[in-house]
């Protein structure tokens, strides 16, 4: 399931939303009181939990903006949503400048939040595009769904046979055989297609820099990423980024 982090300083509001959100969206929810925790501890939480969305409950102030700026520098792909019953007109500019481009304000907050978050998750960059990975939809069984959900909901550090096998509670050799049986391709082919997709999305849709992309996709270095990218796409990322208008995926 997707993972959301609720940030704020009002414990009552944080607990109330943390209780309601899983009922609305069936999401995993984590909470942090930013007045009681350091930026280092926030870093640790983001890294360990693979947070995909952040709900900001606080009034916009210097502390809030500092935390948001820090997180956006550390994790440029995290989606921020400002959630409150009221927002002064003069603060919209500050929120936008901080990189928070989504706000849920006013009546029907909870229903609107649930719909909006589900839509964000539907279009999240880490979702697996089945049509590009597996052409035979008959193979998309409950176990195949479990494999897909594991990849979508966890750090790419865990996109490995040992991690998936442990999650399915089967041996590594059995896991390899299951992936081939369920998806019609072997694990290496599956991972290569997924990396090609992620590279295209992050570079051309999300407009991230290659220096950011190689770290997100867990490459050891930019040169390693560049070589792998060229082997999969047929051209260098430099060529595609600066000389081609079409996204090759």
Distance between the termini: 26 Å
SSE order in H/E notation? EHEHEHEHEHHHHHHHHH
Based on secondary structure, the structural category is alpha/beta
CATH level 1 class label of the largest domain? Alpha Beta
The CATH homologous superfamily name of the largest domain equals Response regulator
Largest sheet: 5 strands, parallel
Strand order of the largest sheet: 2-1-3-4-5
Which overall shape is indicated by the principal axes computed on the Cα atoms? globular
The total beta strand count reads 5
| DSSP helical segment count | 13
Give average pLDDT, whole number: 84
User: What is the CATH third-level topology name of the largest domain?
Assistant: Rossmann fold
> What fraction of the residues are assigned to beta strands by DSSP?
5-15%
Q: Count the domains.
A: 2
Percent helix range = 55-70%
At CATH level 2, the architecture of the largest domain is 3-Layer(aba) Sandwich
- Radius of gyration equals 20 Å
Unreliable residue runs = none
Keywords, separated by commas or semicolons:
5 strands, 10% strand, alpha/beta, Rossmann fold, Arc Repressor Mutant, subunit A, 2 domains, 249 residues
Describe the structure.
This protein has 249 residues and is α/β, with parallel strands linked by helices. It folds into 2 domains: 120 residues, Response regulator (Rossmann fold), CATH 3.40.50.2300; 114 residues, Orthogonal Bundle (Arc Repressor Mutant, subunit A), CATH 1.10.10. It has 13 helices and 5 strands. A 5-stranded parallel beta sheet has the order 2-1-3-4-5, with helices on both faces. The protein is globular.
């Amino acid at each position: 399931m997707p993972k959301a982090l609720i940030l704020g300083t009002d414990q009552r509001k944080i607990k109330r939303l943390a209780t309601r959100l899983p009922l609305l969206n069936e999401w995993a929810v984590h909470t942090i009181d930013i007045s009681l925790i350091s930026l280092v501890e926030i870093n640790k939480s983001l890294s360990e939990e693979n947070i995909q969305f952040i709900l900001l409950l606080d009034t916009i102030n210097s502390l809030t903006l500092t935390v948001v700026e820090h997180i956006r520098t550390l994790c440029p792909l995290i989606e921020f949503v400002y959630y409150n019953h009221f927002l002064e007109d003069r603060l919209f500019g500050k929120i936008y400048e901080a990189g928070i481009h989504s706000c849920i304000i006013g009546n029907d907050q909870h229903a609107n939040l649930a719909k909006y978050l589900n839509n964000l998750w539907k279009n999240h960059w880490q979702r697996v595009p089945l049509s590009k990975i597996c052409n035979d939809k008959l193979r998309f069984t409950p176990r195949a769904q479990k494999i897909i959900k594991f990849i979508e909901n966890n750090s790419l550090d865990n996109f490995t046979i040992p991690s998936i096998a442990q999650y399915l509670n089967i041996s590594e050799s059995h896991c390899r055989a299951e992936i081939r049986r369920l998806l019609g391709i072997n694990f290496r082919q599956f991972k290569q297609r997924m990396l090609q997709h992620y590279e295209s999305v992050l570079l051309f849709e999300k407009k991230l820099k290659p220096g950011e992309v190689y770290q997100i996709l867990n490459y050891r270095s930019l040169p390693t990423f560049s070589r792998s990218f060229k082997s999969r796409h047929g051209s260098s990322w430099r060529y595609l980024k600066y000389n081609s208008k079409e996204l090759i995926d």
